[in-house]
Amino acid sequence: xxxxxxxxxxxxxxxxxxxxxxxxxxxxxxxxxxxxxxxxxxxxxxxxxxxxxxxxxxxxxxxxxxxxxxxxxxxxxxxxxxxxxxxxxxxxxxxxxxxxxxxxxxxxxxxxxxxxxxxxxxxxxxxxxxxxxxxxxxxxxxxxxxxxxxxxxxxxxxxxxxxxxxxxxxxxxxxxxxxxxxxxxxxxxxxxxxxxxxxxxxxxxxxxxxxxxxxxxxxxxxxxxxxxxxxxxxxxxxxxxxxxxxxxxxxxxxxxxxxxxxxxxxxxxxxxxxxxxxxxxxxxxxxxxxxxxxxxxxxxxxxxxxxxxxxxxxxxxxxxxxxxxxxxxxxxxxxxxxxxxxxxxxxxxxxxxxxxxxxxxxxxxxxxxxxxxxxxxxxxxxxxxxxxxxxxxxxxxxxxxxxxxxxxxxxxxxxxxxxxxxxxx
Length: 425
Ligand SMILES: [Zn+2]
Description:
Distance between the termini: 105 Å
Structural class: alpha+beta
Bound molecules: zinc ion
Shape: globular
Low-confidence stretches: 1-8, 28-52
Order of helices and strands: HHEHEHEEHEHEEEHEEHEEHEEEEEEEE
Number of helices: 9
CATH architecture of the largest domain: Alpha-Beta Barrel
Largest sheet: 14 strands, mixed
Number of domains: 2
CATH topology of the largest domain: TIM Barrel
Radius of gyration: 31 Å
Number of strands: 20
């Protein structure tokens, strides 16, 4: 019955009419849904600043910070910082939030955002506070020392060749635009530190000028962005500017290792630790960091190497490496194990030498694993020997106080040990 009725009702004309009505109704419905969706999306966008003062991709996921530890050197804490990087506020490709998260994840204490002021009106020109103002609250929340910086270039001054200088601790970024020397003078008047970035092969006239004015604090010994470029040499897994160590020592300047990252950090570092500058600071704050740079207490850390003035690289090694004692590990062979603790997160590479006729170390470099105790074998030459004190030299093959100047530590192994030992249960 119902089939007959349907047959009667569904004439071709009626079918077309129904189809048109149905299509109109459906399109009206979807328009309403879309309109509501747009309203909701707009609403969400409007609420975003309130709910998420620092938008980031990481805030909904677990994120681990690597704790990089160095023992204090005397009264100085060893802080870790990157004093040169870029964001979307100049020619960088990531937001300032990403830079802060990366630095936190990578175990840094200090980050200076050094965007080029030339981009100020092009890159988000309406935000005069720029990257620093935008992420300062986030950095504070994460316990990071965030520095307001800029990278000044000589391209707009009359002095060739073109060089760049990373300044930190500025207060007025607007004053950084225009003539190079005027900008750098303004930076100094604001209390900024000045670091010569990716310096190339040769010392320059303008560096001399800045030095004479007392306007230069340090030079990049390593810059990840320019690794492999002119003026860099390859050693122990890293491209860097070894000549810079001479320049630092000759002119009492601080050595720096910076990322100069423009892209995400993962584009520069594949599993290895990022480059960083160690700062030996009295206090873990901006005042402490600035004073340490002004007093030249910095060490460049890159490619499993430490480079800096002897006092500070040696100080870090002395504080980190502790000889805890010996153990007789093969009585017949008269072989002992020297127990060497490395308190730091840095893998010191050491050649041990006994400055005595009585003992012998294999002449190979031993890697002291970070935060671990390494047993280094040595042989006592005579069974009868009773040793109460044995001088040792530790040649650190990855810690440098100058070009071709690996740091050496002298230790005296105290305590009695002899190869004739009787074990009783
Ligand atoms: Zn740069």
